[in-house]
Write a structure and sequence with these properties.
- The complex is a heterodimer of chains A (about 150) and B (about 240).
- Chain A has about 150 residues and is α+β, with helices and mostly antiparallel strands.
- Chain A is built from four helices and six strands.
- Chain A folds into two domains: about 30 residues; about 90 residues, Beta Barrel (OB fold (Dihydrolipoamide Acetyltransferase, E2P)), CATH 2.40.50.
- In chain A, about 30% of the residues lie in helices and about 25% in strands.
- In chain A, strands 1-3-4-6-5 form a five-stranded mixed barrel.
- In chain A, β2 and β3 form a beta hairpin.
- The longest helix of chain A is centred in the N-terminal third of the chain and has 26 residues.
- By secondary structure, chain B is mainly α.
- Chain B starts with a helix and ends with a helix.
- The chains are: A alpha+beta (about 150), B mainly alpha (about 240).
- Chains A and B meet through α1, β6 and α4 of A and α3 of B.
- Chain B: Required for the export of heme to the periplasm for the biogenesis of c-type cytochromes.
- Chain B: Belongs to the CcmC/CycZ/HelC family.
- Chain B: One of its GO terms (cellular component) is plasma membrane.
- Chain B: Pfam families: Cytochrom_C_asm.
């Protein structure tokens, strides 16, 4: 075996070991790397009351309402299977609307409601000019699943 | 390996570089001008994000280059460790600051974009965190290369770091698929085709090409100046030896 090919084998083995070690670590840390829980995760993970977590999903259609003086809002977050009621007091991001993906930070209370102190809007991977959306809507091709526009 | 080692000769490399450089520079200027004009004037605003979507034309190509330059450094490091190719270390050394610059640009424009769209300058989700790690890897690579008296040892240490750090590249790419993140999934490089309207994809692609050409131009200039510097050092030593 030449020096060159020995160096190559050492490098290949080292990279393979490193890659598998990283894969194992990342799999083990899966729960910590995940940025937010979905409403279904909330059920299965048995999240304790008062523990700070992030909850993400779509704002369910027809659930958004302003409470009292209008600074406090209430809406439901859904992932299709489960739904959680959220109350929040503060400024909502521009992209916030019903049907939009959002991530909220806060904790569950005794009644199973989520008290959020921060709401972030999640943007999806679709980029389109307004005219295209209007044309799609006019022809009935617009699926409008999670990126639904409420106008 | 003969083609590979043909350019190991610095003079041959310098000659080729001098021939290629004006052409690549010209193409860079043209593609950057066309790309920027399309990005800012002819491309339409997004149906959700409005005019803010124009940040994408800088942010996305920067992020692509951040990963591309790192991959180039990792490949150069493999060539350096296995074949001891003399230009490989130079290429890695010349690339690192450029890659760090692109990574910083991606982080900064992402932050400026995140505030109006998401509502936060920064979050610790898997995509943003892994790109920040990439930025630190670049800084570490640059520091390590210059940390030793002998350049040879610095090159070797930096090459090992570059190869070890390469595990981060697939993590960055797939972070948005493997974990829940605030950052949206890929829009261009995905199995079922892009989810960007052609009117926005074109300027993005041209900007991507312009950034890649810019990297080649700066890389060639930096390698060239390193080679010239080495030559000067050799001459100076020869002069000093003669004087004694």
């Amino acid at each position: 075996m030449t020096r060159k090919s020995r160096r190559m084998y050492v490098l290949v083995v080292a990279i393979a070991l490193l890659a598998s070690a990283t894969a194992l670590v990342l799999t083990a840390l899966d729960d910590n790397i995940t940025y937010f829980y979905s409403p279904s995760d909330l059920k299965t993970k048995q999240v304790t009351i008062g523990r700070a977590i992030r909850l993400g999903g779509l704002v369910e259609d027809g659930t958004f309402e302003k409470l009292g003086d209008g600074l406090k809002v209430k809406f439901s977050i859904t992932d299709g299977a489960e739904t959680v009621a959220v109350t929040y007091q503060g400024i909502l991001p521009d992209l916030f609307r019903e049907g939009q993906g959002v991530i909220t930070e806060g904790s569950l209370n005794e009644k199973g409601e989520f008290i959020a102190h921060e709401v972030l809007a999640k943007h999806d991977e679709n980029y389109m000019p307004t005219e295209v959306i209007e044309a799609l809507k006019a022809s009935g091709e617009w699926r409008g699943d999670e990126e639904q526009v409420t106008e | 390996m003969s083609v590979f080692h043909r350019f190991a000769n610095p003079n041959r490399f310098l000659k080729l570089t001098n021939q290629v450089l004006p052409w690549v520079s010209g193409l860079t200027v043209i593609s950057l001008a066309v790309g920027l004009y399309m990005s800012f004037f002819t491309s339409p605003p997004d149906y959700q994000q409005g005019e803010s979507v124009r940040i994408m034309y800088i942010h996305v190509p920067s992020a692509w280059m951040a990963m591309f330059v790192y991959t180039s450094i990792a490949i150069a490091s493999v060539c350096s460790l296995i074949w001891r190719h003399p230009l490989a270390d130079l290429a890695a050394k010349a690339s690192a600051p450029i890659g760090a610059g692109f990574t910083f640009l991606a982080l900064a424009t992402g932050s400026l974009w995140g505030k109006p769209m998401w509502g936060a300058w920064w979050v610790w989700d898997a995509r943003l965190t892994s790109v920040l790690i990439l930025f630190f890897l670049y800084l570490g690579h640059m520091a390590l290369m210059n940390a030793f008296e002998e350049q040879e040892r610095g090159n070797k240490a930096a090459a090992v770091l570059a190869i070890v750090g390469f595990v981060n590249i697939p993590i960055i790419k797939f972070s948005v698929d493997w974990w829940n993140t605030l950052h949206q999934p890929a829009s261009v490089m995905r199995a079922d085709g892009p989810t960007i309207d052609p009117s926005m994809l074109w300027p993005l692609m041209i900007m991507g090409i312009a950034f890649k050409l810019f990297y080649i131009v700066v890389l060639l200039i930096r390698i060239k100046s390193e080679l010239i510097e080495a030559k000067l050092r050799k001459y100076r030593r020869a002069v000093v030896d003669k004087a004694h």
